[in-house]
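Problem 12. The chain below contains 503 residues. Write out its predicted structure in token notation.
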Amino acid sequence: MPARHAGPDLRQRALVPVLVFLGTVVAVISSLGAPLVPTIAAVDHVSLADAQWSLTITLLVGSVATPVMGRLGDGPHRRRVVLGAIAVVLVGSVLAALPLGFGFLVAGRALQGVGLGLIPLAIATARDVLSAERSRPAVALLSITTVAGVGLGYPLTGLITESMGIHAGFWFGAIISGLALLAAALVVPQVDGREKRPLDAPGAVLLAVGLASLLLALSEGEVWGWTSARVLGLILFALALLAGWSFHELRTPHPLVDLRTLRNRSVLTANVAGLIAGVAMYMMMSMVTRFVQTPSATGYGFGTSVWVTGLVLLPFSAASVASSKLVPLLTRRTSTAMVLPIGCGISLLSMVLFLLARGSLWELFVIMGVAGLGVGCTFAVMPGLIVSAVPAHETGSAMSFNQVVRTIGYTTGSVLSAVVLEAHTASGQLLPANSGYQTAAWLGCTIWVVTAVVTIVLPRRSAAAERPVTPVTPDEELLMDESIADAESAEDSVTAAPGRSGR
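Solution.
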């Protein structure tokens, strides 16, 4: 008998490390396009605006695929959806790595975007398969991993590209995708007892076209002109479709995303905060990567290589993981409700430091470390808020919606920083004035203040009217307290495990 149970026990122990490894792989691969845009433009002889599509297309496809995968993953075929998505990412990685030209590279990056829908499914799997004591910290850590992986991908990509060429970076993505597929096939279980529900095809189409139109307008606004007919028309078209989608979701018996869960103060707070915090987070990352690569002859900047630029972001990843030590301490000293605004306050401090002290590389290392600590605290709490407030059969869909609003925030933040810097670029010049970074940083400070206010005011205003979506045991606030407290123990088990998976 013991021999028969050894296999399942091993799979149980390996599940959290494998899920975290999946999250890291997805985050690293999704970030592959950003530092390589100038190199792609030079190698494939395309403009910088065209090369930017190597990043934009991944976000576009990810925003469309994520809610569909989330709904499919809430049914009986989650394991198939997970393995199928990783297989698509692997194919996309190989296609992007082959020297077939810019068109095939963009097509490969589009297939890689499917991987962005894996994080909500990983969180749903942790909730369903693991015990309460293991699932709560695993959910928090999975959210941190998605943030940490972005900063980790930049230096890895830079080092590989500078050493072995641009296609080597995408081959690296193919290798880790293959390892992730193998690990998932061995460990991710089939969850039984799930009711099969019809897919809301009209809702999926409305959401896909609406989000694609919105993100396309945001991504191309700088090139086409923000007041151009194409951009304004796309934005109006997107808003009309998304409004129609919302109306449809509230009336259909099997919605793609159950928008009624937004009535719950925890779910609403997590989604609104995720959207706004995503804007501020990507503003900081976009500003720093441009600032450090600016030639020092302009009077600011350091003229660093892609690899050194990635190293500047490494403290962001390290500090976001280290936040799992800070969050339990903050909870004990204050309360669960205060963790989100405190995280926003720490992130605000990083923006203030960028305003006042960016004259040397070591200062930027410190700034990004502070930013990672704040973002880690903020994003670690959000999944727990959602998971504790929605029924188990809605976890994948609810987390997918949160992932989508974060993606919209990321894209908006990147666009905002570009718009502000472009406004401070003199006619005939390629680089903005240093004052552009001042203005962008002030805007980032404002956004973090707004996010902190939202996380304080929104729960209080809706608390009296809230009725839980489904009974939970123990009650929601106690569940969040335990989730955050358990994050500390989760870090110890996962910091070692991903390393084994990665090797």
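Discussion. Residues 1-6, 463-503 have pLDDT under 50 and may be disordered. Students who got a different answer should revisit the alignment rule from Section 12.3.
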